[in-house]
User: Fold this.
Amino acid sequence: MAPVVSKPAEVALHPGYREVVVQFLTELADDELTLGHRDSEWLGLAPDIEGDIAFSSIAQDEVGHAAFCFDRIAELTGQEADVLAFARSAAERRNARLLERENGDWAETIVRHYLYDTFDRLRLQALVESSYRPLAEGAVKMLREEYYHRLHMQTVLARLGRGGEARERVERALYALADEVGSLFAGSLQDARLTDLRILRASGNDIASAWCEQVAAELEDWGLPVPAGLRTVRPAADGRTVHGAALQQLLSEMAEVYHTDPQATW
Assistant:
């Protein structure tokens, strides 16, 4: 992650506004970096060459999105992007707990990515007219890339759901992950200041409602079950603040090179 060399006018934002932007950016960055790392763990291990190539590209995109957000936080706070990405403890991370889970089998990975990509698309769409212009402009670019991420997951999920053992694995994954979905909608999405300050143009409840409607409709189209936890989402109060052992393992592996020389520019 290259150091930030310029600071836009937004660094002079009102402290209350800046606080909300930084909180939201931190969640977005931690989501993308966490999932990007989990995606990278499939490289060379995916069940087919299509999956291997797709996850290689998707992992790079997600980490790139995280880098963009960490750079914006660095501009607003004076912290270093590398420190934000690699040196914070698990207790300081604000990713949705759903994303830190170990990958499990291929079906679970695809289901989780589909659930997240649907959420992320709605979140980014609510940002394209954000009052914080750097984020609005970044959201436009990220949306173009996330479109293909979601399309890939839709295609693979529909194919896996056609029958046999693959379908059974998909169904198990849907029920297993339904309890963790509330973590996506936790944190700053429950802060009314996001919409009051027009940083986000849709409330967390609006995004959750649209997410449930879209996920239920698509799963039904593919003939897959829709667990109750996917029809009605309840934000988990600790969904972005309480993490499991899986996150510590992920951070130890992800930051191993960084910790060999924290003063280096990676």
